[in-house]
Amino acid sequence: MTVMRFREALNEALREEMDRDPRVFLFGEDLRDPWGGTFRVTQGLSTQYGDDRVLNTPISENGLLDAALGCAITGLRPVVEFMHMDFTVMAMDGLVNQVPKARYMTGGQVTVPMVIRTPAGGYRSSAAQHGQSLESLYTHIPGMLVVAPSTPADAKGLLKTAIRLDDPVFFVEHKSLYMLKGEVPDGEHLVPLGKADVKREGSDCTIAAWSFMVHKALEAADKLAAEGIQAEVIDLRSLVPLDEEALLASVAKTGRLVIVHEAPERTGYGAEIAAFVAGRGFASLKTGIRRVAARNFPLPMAPKLENAVLPQTEWIVDAVRAAVEGDAA
Amino acid sequence: MLTKPEFLRAYETMCLIREFEESLVRMHGEARVPGFVHVSVWQEAVSTGVSMWLRPDDLMITTHRGHGDIIAKGASIERMFAELLARAPGYCRAKGGSMHVTDVALGVLGANGIVGASMPIGTGAALSMKKQGRDSVVVVYTGDGAIAQGLTHEALNMASLWQLPVIYVRTDNQYAESTSPRAYRGIPDVVRYVEGYGIHAEAVDGNDVEAVSDAAKRAVERTRGGGGPSFLTCSTYRRYGHNTSDVGAYRTPEEVAAWQARDPLTVARSRLVAERGVADPEMDAIDARVKERIDAAIAWADAQAEPPLEWAFEDLYADPATIAAFGGAVR
User: Fold this and answer.
1) Could you give the 3-state DSSP secondary structure of residue A172?
2) What is the ipTM of this complex?
3) Could you tell me the residue range of the domain that residue A226 belongs to?
4) Alpha carbon of A14: minimum distance to chain B alpha carbons (Å)
5) Does residue B258 sit at the A interface (CB-CB below 8 Å)?
6) Residue B181: pLDDT band by 50, 70, 90 thresholds?
7) Same domain for A121 and A172?
8) How far is the C-alpha of B109 from the C-alpha of B101, rounded, in Å?
9) How far apart are CA B39 and CA A324, in angstroms?
10) Does residue B99 form part of some domain?
11) CB-CB under 8 Å, B96 with A107
12) Which of A68, A85, A305, B109 has its CB 3.0 to 4.6 Å from that of A120, i.e. a possible disulfide?
């Protein structure tokens, strides 16, 4: 085990996969040294591998994504970076109409081995256009895989897996996690998609979360334990595919489910999870499923106001307590 | 200038595209072709003239009106009809249809249903050729309306910046759906517009297969030779409306008649007869041979089975590991 930061784990994953496969290259805005990416994830890579493996693009999100698609269907394996998740919507045609559909609409004639990495998330006073969590948009599109790790070890292991897959993966990196330190296994470390991770076991209520919200859920679970409530925290890690069996198994044990996500509540991915568990896990449920999510508002800049919109640890504590006490959802 | 055998071959390709498209119009009228169909009748000289100088390992990508471009690259008309008539041996297993015909083995990266999207995807394919040290060129067909898309700007800038082996062919059939160029272009002169990116551009008579072929030959030579991207804007016209349910009410009968007089097949045929000494019966024999080929291809496609139901749920993901991550069955 080596302790490293989340962003260093991502950098190591890129390095290892670029070493392993000469077809892998990085494609996006401001990736090269000495800048090394807006959040320094690609630092050192253009120096080590040369400008041919680390391509800085113009500020042309839609064009660069489609150009990466042109590379992916002709023998290369691009890893695209969008500087902020908010900017991915500039590439909506590529993300909705082209990349996830290229294989299907050609009857399997092409493969699209592509990873689309993007920093995401708020709690940084970056206001309405630099802090959103838009992952549910991409979970909606058949053909796109969506991954959102919460620890340095998972960041490395999932990114390596994503780069090796012959299918497009939308890879969410929360900006508040980049400096987080954690242990990462030495040697080859791969984490499969579609496998949730039980971060904390408990018998009273399941908390399902991903990305930065896993840490808020764990904080909430600590506080709840002091009150005698044992919460089980599941880090979904990948949203598409979703580890349905892990969710059902946990709810079968606890009988209660609180879903936590940073995106606004309305039609967030929590709605999909709730619908799934309410259907397949109905017999296990002792109370209504609860969601803890952002209020349905854009992000305001002022920290005080932003904290009124984005989910807080106390909101999770309250939701779990209410579920256990059997209040109406 | 084409040699006589080249010119005859070009004429036959144009005939093939013409008959293919006219048969689709007919069959669509008989409700035999599901979905949207955009045909390219009277635009045959562009596809044909450009494709004459492409090698099998050169790539191309096209638009929603791409049948002619794809046939000219050498695609099987049998498999194209099968795709359009929703039969199992269709190029895309009957899941793409008219707007997504693809033949990767032949370098056809696909038609595309989004105006402008061929520009950056094809530009990326050219980047890929350059990165892999291959001397293939990529032909990117685009329509006149696409010049107004942001994607066109992004693609032209990248191609110029990285000096990519890409040849853009703009088939200017005068109308972006129903809108005339006067209503959507700030700068009417497309050559000047494209030259603003530092890209070599030429305006070509798109109804004259020899003119298109000459320009395309120069473009392929300079681009393959490392001269960077080229752009041809080919002025032509489409016989029918935007799609098979559009009668083209936004055009005057006089305008249509003027273009009909310059039908690229008539132009080519009269030149072959008058200047190249081809006898009329020889030309008639080509026409008849093409008609037979089309009839046989339609009969073959008609006799094929429909796609089995389970194909609806195949081809979304490529990697066995992805399928495994879904628990063995994609939901």
Assistant:
1) strand
2) 0.96
3) 197-325
4) 19
5) no
6) confident
7) yes
8) 9
9) 64
10) yes
11) yes
12) A85
